[in-house]
Amino acid sequence: MKIFYILQLIYLLQVQLIIDANPIRATKSKNTQEIYCPQKKTDSDIIKLFPFPVQSNPMLPKPSMTYGLMTNGKINSIEIINQKTCIPSIIFCLKNLEKLVINNSYFCDSTKHIGGKMEYLPEQIIKLEKLKTLKISHVNLTFLPSIIGNLSSLTDLLISYT
């Protein structure tokens, strides 16, 4: 029985070393799926694929409104508020996204969501290379992937009411 625990520990240490040595490869864990990003789609086309409405550049955003802010046809900020339908992984195709706010919503590929509450942040977040601000609130977040440290543009990370 003791040898079994030792082998398990050795395996876990090897996995951790692989992840630490090659963080990009770490994105291919169980909870990560490949994302198909349509090449000829604009950011406006991409948000139309969401299962809930996303207002573009609203004049006066309401606190309970899901909306995106665009400049030159590129979405640079999106706030997803109180969505009962999950956030699709195609959100990670928004290459110019600098600000992402998630409040009381969850990702579709989060296999551990309970009652519409997100338990972990998908590792596909690494695809948002220009992300500067990430705010997550009112979710059951229990896990942040270590790969989030590879988001070199990220300057503001706020996690509250989890």
From TrEMBL:
Point out the signal peptide segment: 1-21
Q: Which Gene3D superfamilies does the entry link to?
A: Ribonuclease Inhibitor
Going by the UniProt record, its keywords in alphabetical order are:
Signal
Entry annotated with the keyword Metal-binding: no
**Is DNA-binding a UniProt keyword of this protein?**
no
Q: Which PANTHER family match?
A: LEUCINE-RICH REPEAT AND IQ DOMAIN-CONTAINING PROTEIN 4, LEUCINE-RICH REPEAT-CONTAINING
Q: Which named protein is this? A: Uncharacterized protein
Source organism: Adineta steineri
